[in-house]
């Protein structure tokens, strides 16, 4: 998942899988994404409205709606009801947490995405998810169109140890 600049909150994503040859091959079209309202950061802090740059594991999923066929452990329930009715830009959050995949930034893998355990401490933020896009930048998560979230949930295989690589293109090229 990447965008043109450090301050951009719109970008793109492509799903890759490793071929038998060991080479990475794209297996999806280019998907539109939304990230933190203020873009990206290498030093994420709670409430900074930026998405952390890096490579993070994807081990746990969940959402308000029934599991669409995820191979990842899936926690479904009302706990995924947004705490506020609008996002950082005042757009409604309706449906944003219907499907989520926890990004293993400052969290303990193997627990529900709702877990508040923060190994680096609360000041470093947490609760960074891939979730359904809601029409605006996020508080630090990455939003994908609903259909892409469903597809992603069905494709992510824990045996393959999936990761997300995310940030501005200039940081990812380094």
UniProtKB/TrEMBL annotation:
<keyword id="KW-0961">Cell wall biogenesis/degradation</keyword>
<keyword id="KW-0573">Peptidoglycan synthesis</keyword>
<protein>
    <submittedName>
        <fullName>L,D-transpeptidase family protein</fullName>
    </submittedName>
</protein>
<dbReference type="InterPro" id="IPR005490">
    <property type="entry name" value="LD_TPept_cat_dom"/>
</dbReference>
<feature type="domain" description="L,D-TPase catalytic">
    <location>
        <begin position="4"/>
        <end position="166"/>
    </location>
</feature>
<comment type="pathway">
    <text>Cell wall biogenesis; peptidoglycan biosynthesis.</text>
</comment>
<feature type="active site" description="Proton donor/acceptor">
    <location>
        <position position="131"/>
    </location>
</feature>
<keyword id="KW-0133">Cell shape</keyword>
<dbReference type="Pfam" id="PF03734">
    <property type="entry name" value="YkuD"/>
</dbReference>
<feature type="active site" description="Nucleophile">
    <location>
        <position position="141"/>
    </location>
</feature>
């Amino acid at each position: 998942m990447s965008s043109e600049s450090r301050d951009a909150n719109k970008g793109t994503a492509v799903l890759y899988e490793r071929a038998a040859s060991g080479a990475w091959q794209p297996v999806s079209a280019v998907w539109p994404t939304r990230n933190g309202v203020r873009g990206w950061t290498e030093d994420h802090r709670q409430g900074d409205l930026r998405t952390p740059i890096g490579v993070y594991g994807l081990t746990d999923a969940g959402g308000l709606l029934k599991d669409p066929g995820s191979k990842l452990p899936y926690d479904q329930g009302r706990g995924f009801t947004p705490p506020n009715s609008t996002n950082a830009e005042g757009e409604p959050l309706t449906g944003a947490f219907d499907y989520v995949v926890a990004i293993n930034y400052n969290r303990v893998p193997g627990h529900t995405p709702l877990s508040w355990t923060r190994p680096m401490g609360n000041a470093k933020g947490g609760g960074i998810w891939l979730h359904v896009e809601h029409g605006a930048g996020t508080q630090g998560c990455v939003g994908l169109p609903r259909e892409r979230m469903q597809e992603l949930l069905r494709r992510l295989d824990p045996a393959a140890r999936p990761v997300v690589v995310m940030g501005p293109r200039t940081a990812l090229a380094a």
